[in-house]
Specification:
CATH class: Alpha Beta
Oligomer: single chain
Shape: globular
Strand content: over 45%
Number of domains: 1
CATH topology: Nuclear Transport Factor 2, Chain: A
Number of helices: 4
Low-confidence stretches: none
Order of helices and strands: HHEEHHEEEE
CATH architecture: Roll
Structural class: alpha+beta
Helix content: 25-40%
């Protein structure tokens, strides 16, 4: 499998974790030292991995169980050696987010190292 496909699989698992409110999937795709930061309508939010996984888990019933629209699009994907930057647009919790996901390859596994998010609508 190509590096690009491995990264795309990681993005897909990340989004499935969000839609299913599954913290184990979130922790599987993010590096243990990951930071998640961005702006929601109420201001800046900054979270470590445990805080973000807890936020995702707290969305009950899950977006999937509520029948929320699921949509994710990879806008761009650039790989530079053992690092990568992937821009995605996704629907989550009734909002459209644009995420900048930075990836780091450690021990032959791609993990999301940082997530910067912006609410488009």
């Amino acid at each position: 499998m190509s590096e690009k496909n491995l990264i795309e699989d990681c993005v897909d698992l990340y989004y499935a974790g969000c839609c299913e409110s599954d913290p184990s999937k979130i922790k599987q795709v993010f590096d243990e030292n990951a930071m998640i930061s961005g702006y929601l309508p109420d201001g800046l939010h900054e979270m470590n991995l445990d805080e973000f996984a807890g936020f995702v888990e707290a969305q009950q019933p899950s977006p999937k169980e509520k029948g929320d629209e699921e949509s994710i699009e990879i806008i761009s994907s650039d790989i530079y050696g053992s690092t990568a930057i992937v821009m995605v647009r996704e629907k989550y919790l009734g909002m459209t987010f644009v995420d900048t996901l930075s990836f780091l390859k450690k021990d032959d596994t791609w993990k999301i190292y940082t997530k910067l998010f912006h609410v488009e609508s």
